[in-house]
Amino acid sequence: MAHHHLDSAAHGQRHLVELKLAALKTLAHPEYLELAGPRASRRRRALYQRARWVLPRESDEFWLARLGLIDRGVWSQGLLERRLASFRAFVGWVHGSRRVGRFRALATEAERRAMYAREWRTWLWRRFGAYLWERWFDVPPERLERLLLEGRLLAPPPEIEESVFEAAKACAPRALVAGSPEDYLRTLPDASVDVFALGRLDVRGLEGEIARVARPGARISVVCERAPDVRGFRAEGAPAEAGIFPGFLIQEVWAT
């Protein structure tokens, strides 16, 4: 029997976004968390059946061929999520569940930093730790070390809050998921888009089209090292670390 994962290919990520959008439209907050996977559930297929009627045909066929992912909770099957899970398992094997539990129970960064220096940074870790982190995540080890000391690297992914869920649900009927962003942006009329949720998309080469189709007051969110150089947009507040992702979530606002 084939054992599917949701890889990082663009089409797989697009179908995941389509499923999230369908779940937003059709499910209540607790049901959404069950289908997603943060909450245990034995009825994920039944919840999927309720959401699938608003899925595009291609996405529905994609998920029907991967019902095992639905059963396990699709949010944990992405490439980054699986790497995080395997890293946590490795840390538990190296340090033991009790030590990891004590580390996770610490309340402050100062306490975590002290325990990390005292019990974690052994000679073997100093010798091979940077290599292991780069092998898992392909980002600078110092950034992952910072997330560890902030208490986020070993923590389970946070559940979406009900207030955030309801706000997203209100926007869901107007949301569209684009396949090729270059081709899609060219089909849109001027000043027609309120929000761009670009994730980790490289916006280089798209700046002119984004500026053209953005409606006055539109916003961009994108995970990147620096604010994208899009004409007419300015940074809104200081960059915020984008959860576990290797980059910064930049909120931008259209300057009228």
What topology emerges from the helices and strands here?
Layout: H1 10-26, H2 29-36, H3 44-51, H4 57-64, H5 67-72, H6 79-95, H7 97-105, H8 109-120, H9 123-137, H10 141-149, H11 162-171, H12 181-186, E1 193-199, H13 207-213, E2 214-224, E3 233-235, E4 240-241, E5 248-254
Parallel strand pairs: 1-2
Antiparallel strand pairs: 2-5, 3-5, 4-5
Helix pairs in contact: 1-3, 1-4, 2-3, 6-7
Name its key features.
single chain; 256 residues; alpha+beta; 3 domains; 13 helices; 52% helix; 12% strand
Structure description:
This protein has 256 residues and is an alpha+beta fold. It has three domains: 10-76, no CATH class; 79-149, no CATH class; 178-254, no CATH class. The chain contains 13 helices and five strands. Strands 1, 2, 3, 4 and 5 form a five-stranded mixed beta sheet that branches. Helix 13 links the parallel strand 1 and strand 2. Helix 1 crosses helix 3 (44-51). The radius of gyration is 20 Å and the shape is globular. 17% of the residues are buried. The model has no long low-confidence stretch (mean pLDDT 80).
Mean pLDDT, all residues: 80
The share of residues in helices is 40-55%
* Uncertain regions spanning at least 5 consecutive residues: none
Structural class: alpha+beta
What kind of sheet is the major sheet?
Answer: 5 strands, mixed
